[in-house]
Amino acid sequence: MDADWPLIAIRFALYGTLSGLFGLSAFSLFGLKAGERADALALRPWLVGSGLLGLLFSGIALALLAAAMAGAPAWPIDREAIGMLLTGSATGAAWEARMVALVVASVLALIAAGRVVPLGLIAFAAGIALATLAWTGHGAMDDGAIGWVHLVADVLHLLAGGAWVGALLGLMLLATRPVSRVNEAHLRLTHRALHGFGTVGTILVGTIVVTGLVNGWLLVGPGNLPKLAVTLYGQFLIAKLTLFGAMLALASLNRFRLTPAFERSIEAADHRGALGALRRSLAVEAACAVMILALVAWLGTLEPPASGM
């Protein structure tokens, strides 16, 4: 089967944009203090931009998905197919919920992005928007009790992954601030955010691992494990797990070696080398995250082994 490149591309764009919106707003809540958010991250343009892009990409995704389900070309837009998708499916209802959530998140971000209550509401709305992607993938393929278990696991997997991706974005914005705007206060803020993410990151990793095992059991099944390496789905899944392992290794390096070294360099007033090492590590970790999102976008268009059982 030929790859549906436009659909894969828009799925990738949605995963990245909505993960950034949810994760960055959540990171700003737990990683930064109220008076630091607007200046440290330029939060408003990032959140408003992500929300508006999420709306745009969601509109394109709806047209592509409706065309794929109707077996019609993406252009001209098949309004009848879109109407049927919106009124007669859980996917359509999820899309409508996503659009409402993104409008709410974008408006709140435009009005008061740095304040605690609006930021909490932005994170909540963005979480809803991100969670709706579960209805566009394999999480909605099962019925009954198993279907609910699969859907809940997929939603939690999306939220934990999105929180990690958004936190990486926030940490990179802090660590890569222009030299002319870096002072000791910003360096200490960056260290505190890096150190504070250690506990939250552990929770996120645990959630990703547990929900990933549930999804793997339902999508692959233990009987299909020996055949993974000879199927495209299996090869992509192995690549995803390898990249996830690399992210874990880099996160551990950051937490136990680079962040303490960065703290010592601040005290010694010689932070350039330690900060450069952190930047490189975060950049590689972010690159791994981008590749994982691309694989997830493609995996969602492939038939998993368990569906053929």
Automatic annotation (TrEMBL):
Gene Ontology biological process terms, A to Z: copper ion transport
Source species, domain of life: Bacteria
Pfam families, per the entry: CopD
Parts of the chain that traverse the membrane: 12-34, 46-72, 92-111, 116-135, 155-175, 196-220, 232-253, 282-300
InterPro entries according to UniProt: CopC/D, CopD, Cu-R_CopD_dom
Signal peptide span: none
This protein's UniProt keywords: Cell membrane, Membrane, Transmembrane, Transmembrane helix
GO cellular component: plasma membrane
Location(s) in or outside the cell: Cell membrane
Annotated membrane topology: Multi-pass membrane protein
Domain Copper resistance protein D: 192-299
NCBIfam families: copper_CopD
PANTHER family: INNER MEMBRANE PROTEIN YEBZ
Name of protein: Putative copper resistance protein D
Organism of this sequence: Sphingomonas jatrophae
